[in-house]
Specification:
This is Enoyl reductase (ER) domain-containing protein. It comes from Mortierella isabellina (Filamentous fungus). By secondary structure, the protein is of the alpha/beta class. The chain has two domains: 5-166 and 306-353, Quinone Oxidoreductase, Chain A, domain 1; 168-301, NAD(P)-binding Rossmann-like Domain (Rossmann fold, 3-Layer(aba) Sandwich). 25% of the residues lie in helices and 26% in strands. Strands 3, 4, 5, 8, 9, 16 and 17 form a seven-stranded mixed beta sheet that branches. The chain has a six-stranded parallel beta sheet with strand order 12-11-10-13-14-15. It has a two-stranded antiparallel sheet with strand order 1-2. It binds zinc ion (2 copies). Residues 101-102, 104-105, 107-108, 116-118 line the site of one zinc ion (ZN). Residues 101-102, 104-105, 107-108, 116-118 line the site of one zinc ion.
């Protein structure tokens, strides 16, 4: 039986951030007005993403507080609007960093909703077309548009599924788009939340060689278990030099100021591709144009992924067994989890559990 509007909740309990540097506090906040395309979810799990912390800290400009972050949200569907056909009450579902788009522009209509020409609607710190605020998954409930809600494959648990919706997608989509495949030789810069997925994707997509680039030796064993064939400590110039001209792709998940462009670009073979995931606050600096030219290197960015890529990724992961390494925290220990995240403790993703 479809739920009637009268029986639907109007509010939810979220762990809200009231301002930069403040602890999260459980707060009652309004859900958006239920629409015909909306899906309600009882949240079971939500992953913790670097973007969450960045937004709590107003790192990308002023945040609209109070803000409930979290955009790796998984749970059970509790109600659907009358236009919703593919999702039913009781289904296990998830949503990622995007919750809306105009759905009418050229990009939305051609399956690139993440590139909506009117701007994508972020799952938190955004506004629905009605002007109501969007709220993320550090919460008991979530409500949003069916286009950005996905069913979880049967052989994937909710706690594992959560982290696919941002960390995994952010690396999967550009690696597919730039054709990582059998025979590829892929370097992954940074073995963290994104990087530990990127290594597994490269292997699952058939790459011959997967090389971890890390600033210390600490993650060598983990990288091997994840599927790396080689591990390079980036301060070791001789090790770096061994890969000169060898790689077909680099996936950079750990860009920092004073990034050593010449050292990394040198590891690419001709017509190689450098994929930058993540969103540095400052313009890129120090890129050696000569090296780009003489090796015909493609340098590209990427932003999450479109709904069709989410669907494809979930199926691919279910088939190949790509799986996050997670540690769980009870939702009410969210402040401890955030502190541990800030201290660099995830190996390799934290997931909050209701
Ligand atoms: Zn994220
Ligand atoms: Zn659009």
């Amino acid at each position: 039986m479809p739920a009637t509007n009268q029986s639907l909740p109007t509010h939810f309990q979220g762990w809200a951030c009231a301002g930069k540097g403040k602890q999260l506090e459980q707060t009652e906040l309004p859900l958006k007005t239920f629409g015909d395309d909306d899906v309600d979810m009882d949240v079971s799990h939500c992953g913790i993403c670097g973007s969450d912390v960045h937004t709590m800290d107003s790192g990308w400009g002023p945040t609209d507080y109070p803000c409930v972050v979290g955009h790796e949200i998984v749970g059970t569907c509790t109600a659907v609007g009358k236009n919703v056909k593919d999702i039913k009450v009781g289904d296990r579902i998830g949503v990622g960093a995007q919750s809306g788009a105009c759905l009418e522009c050229e990009n939305c209509k051609s399956g690139h909703e993440n590139l909506c020409l009117k701007g994508m609607i972020g799952t938190y710190n955004g506004k629905w077309p009605s002007g109501e605020k969007t709220f993320g998954g550090y919460a008991d409930k979530w409500r949003g548009h069916q286009r950005f809600v996905f069913k979880i494959p049967d052989n994937m648990s909710n706690e594992d599924a959560a982290t696919f919706f941002c960390a995994a997608l952010t690396s999967y989509a550009p690696m597919r788009r730039h054709n990582v495949t059998k025979g590829s030789k892929v370097g992954i810069i940074g073995i963290g939340g994104l990087g530990h997925f990127a290594v597994q994707w490269a292997k699952a997509m058939g790459a011959d060689q997967v090389v971890a680039f890390s600033h210390s030796d600490r993650k060598r064993d983990d990288a091997t278990k994840l599927g790396c064939t080689d591990y390079v400590v980036t301060s070791n110039k001789e090790e770096m030099a061994k890969f000169n001209g060898k790689l077909t792709h680099i996936v950079c998940t750990a860009y920092a100021d004073n990034f050593n462009w010449p050292a990394y670009l040198s590891t690419l073979t001709h017509n190689g591709t450098f994929i930058l995931v993540g969103l540095p606050e400052e313009p890129l600096a120090g890129i050696p144009a000569g090296l780009l030219a003489v090796r015909q290197i493609t340098l590209c960015g990427s932003i999450i992924g479109a709904p069709n890529e989410v669907q494809e990724m979930l199926e691919f992961a279910a088939k190949t067994g790509v799986k996050p390494w997670i540690q769980k925290y009870p939702m009410n220990k969210v402040n401890q989890a955030i502190q541990d995240f800030r201290d660099g403790k995830p190996r390799y993703r934290f997931v909050l559990e209701n």
